[in-house]
């Protein structure tokens, strides 16, 4: 074996003849040996990081016990294997003292040649295995710390085992993570709740704000034979995603505003034209009854303009907090904005609603949701057909809420695109659509803790699409 590849052994013994014999035996077994006769010499030579140090207990300046303790307490040399030897200190207490000082093995003179070689080789194997384990642990920790998501491992008692750098960075400087510290208390001070820890045995996911940042936290149960059931906590900084979603929502609302503006323009221009004509007729007539009739009809047309204006304002001005909403009335207002463009396509909008279907929510957002769905249904419906809208109060499990179905008798949605229908920027309208309408609608429905789904059929006599929205009566 090339000398550079031979395992390096440092022999520290105050007797030269002992050093000579040990070196001869180990050299013949393939080891590269260096020697010193003092404790200080051993400490200095240990800085070269040999593989193994054979250390006599009795040294002229410092005892072998103290030399071993210093070597093991120095992070640079702590991984070096130390085999203590002695001709004088041979009792069990001497062995215990050496091992407690950090020695990895202990032999007493006379030392059998084969026992010495076997012991040194065993310590070398142990050191090699420990080095491999340290390298694997360092690689694992480097990978752990390189993740952009914050990860923390929690034991079955709810205490922190370990965490990565991102977890500490996302948590921020105001809270300190301590190994063995209570994760529930940490999360309560950080998020105001310890729900992820309480939800043992179940997956948990929620969004919180930490300062100006939006953070998604998820908790997943993990099983360990030694520690029982613990959890892995994941913190994900979703601030950029939230900003992007807000930008998309704003863009879609602007697009929806343009589409509604077109419908509103028709709803306003027609009655204004009628008002102009009626005023002209009134000014041209000398009959008091006719004048009164013309002005009365003009007043009705102006009231119609006022209603349309209020409906459009409800779309733009939303409350900061959820308020009580009559779902049927809200959808009736939405339908009134689309009746004229629907009529131009020879499509009839039919509303069937129960009374007193009330929920708590944001009317402007829901106007946007149902405006998208009614417009899509109107554009998809075949000329001469009907779009039916139904509003019902139902119970779904323990939840009471409004179910709104919008059914068109159009060509149906191709199966190849159904899985993509709620994806942002996906559209079946070529350049006419932004691809954000249904994505925004689902986002706003989920914000109301509701659900949106659809079913669609294609084929002669049975084609069409139905969208169903469920909105719970109250927000939790």
TrEMBL record:
- Whether Phosphoprotein counts among this entry's keywords is yes
User: What keywords are annotated for this sequence in UniProt?
Assistant: Phosphoprotein
PTM annotation (4-aspartylphosphate): residues: 56
Which GO MF term does the entry hold, naming one?
phosphorelay sensor kinase activity
What the entry lists under Pfam families is as follows: HATPase_c, HisKA, PAS_8, Response_reg
Q: Which reaction does it catalyse?
A: ATP + protein L-histidine = ADP + protein N-phospho-L-histidine
Tell me where in this chain the Response regulatory domain is found: 8-124
Q: Which PANTHER family match?
A: HYBRID SIGNAL TRANSDUCTION HISTIDINE KINASE C (PTHR43547:SF2), TWO-COMPONENT HISTIDINE KINASE (PTHR43547)
What protein is this chain from?
histidine kinase
Q: What is the lineage of its organism?
A: Bacteria, Pseudomonadati, Acidobacteriota, Terriglobia, Terriglobales
């Amino acid at each position: 074996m090339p000398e550079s590849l031979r395992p390096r052994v440092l022999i520290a013994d105050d007797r030269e003849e002992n050093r000579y014999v040990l070196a001869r035996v180990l050299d013949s077994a393939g080891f590269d040996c260096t020697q010193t006769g003092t404790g200080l010499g051993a400490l200095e030579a240990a800085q070269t990081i040999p593989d193994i140090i054979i250390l006599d207990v009795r040294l002229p300046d410092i005892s072998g016990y103290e030399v071993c303790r210093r070597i093991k307490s120095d992070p640079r040399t702590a991984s070096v294997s130390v085999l203590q030897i002695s001709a004088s200190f041979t009792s069990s207490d001497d062995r215990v003292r050496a091992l407690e000082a950090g020695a990895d093995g202990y032999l007493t003179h006379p030392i059998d040649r084969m026992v010495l070689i076997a012991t040194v080789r065993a310590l070398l194997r142990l050191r090699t295995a420990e080095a491999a384990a340290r390298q694997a642990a360092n690689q694992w920790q480097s990978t752990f710390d390189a993740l952009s998501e914050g990860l923390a491992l929690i034991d079955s008692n709810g205490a922190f085992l370990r965490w990565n750098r991102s977890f500490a960075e996302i948590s921020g400087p105001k809270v300190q993570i301590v190994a063995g510290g209570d994760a529930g208390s940490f999360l309560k001070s950080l998020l105001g709740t310890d729900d992820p820890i309480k939800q043992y045995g179940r997956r948990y996911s929620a969004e919180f704000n930490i300062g100006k940042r939006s953070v998604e936290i998820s908790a997943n149960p993990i099983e360990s034979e030694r520690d029982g059931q613990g959890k892995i906590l994941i913190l994900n900084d979703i601030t950029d995603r939230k900003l992007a979603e807000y930008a998309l929502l704003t863009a879609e609302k602007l697009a929806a505003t343009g589409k509604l503006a077109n419908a509103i323009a028709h709803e306003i221009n027609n009655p204004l034209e009628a008002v102009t004509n009626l005023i002209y007729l009134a000014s041209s007539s000398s009959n008091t009854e006719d004048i009164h009739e013309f002005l009365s009809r003009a007043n009705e047309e102006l009231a119609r303009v006022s209603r349309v204006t209020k409906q459009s304002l409800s779309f733009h001005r939303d409350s900061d907090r959820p308020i009580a909403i009559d779902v049927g009335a809200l959808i009736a207002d939405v339908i009134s904005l689309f009746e004229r463009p629907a009529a131009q396509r020879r499509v009839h909008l039919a509303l069937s609603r129960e009374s007193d279907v009330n929920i708590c929510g944001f009317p402007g957002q829901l106007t946007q949701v149902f405006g998208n769905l009614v417009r899509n249904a109107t554009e998809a419906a075949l000329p001469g057909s009907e779009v039916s809208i139904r509003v019902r109060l139902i119970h779904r499990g323990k939840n009471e809420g409004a179910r709104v179905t919008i059914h068109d008798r159009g060509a149906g949605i191709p199966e190849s695109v159904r899985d993509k229908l709620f994806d942002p920027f996906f559209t079946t309208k070529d350049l006419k659509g932004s691809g954000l309408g249904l994505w925004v609608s689902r986002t706003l429905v989920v914000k109301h803790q509701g659900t949106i789904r659809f079913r669609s059929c294609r084929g002669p006599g049975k084609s069409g699409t139905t969208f169903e929205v469920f909105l719970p009566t109250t927000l939790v």
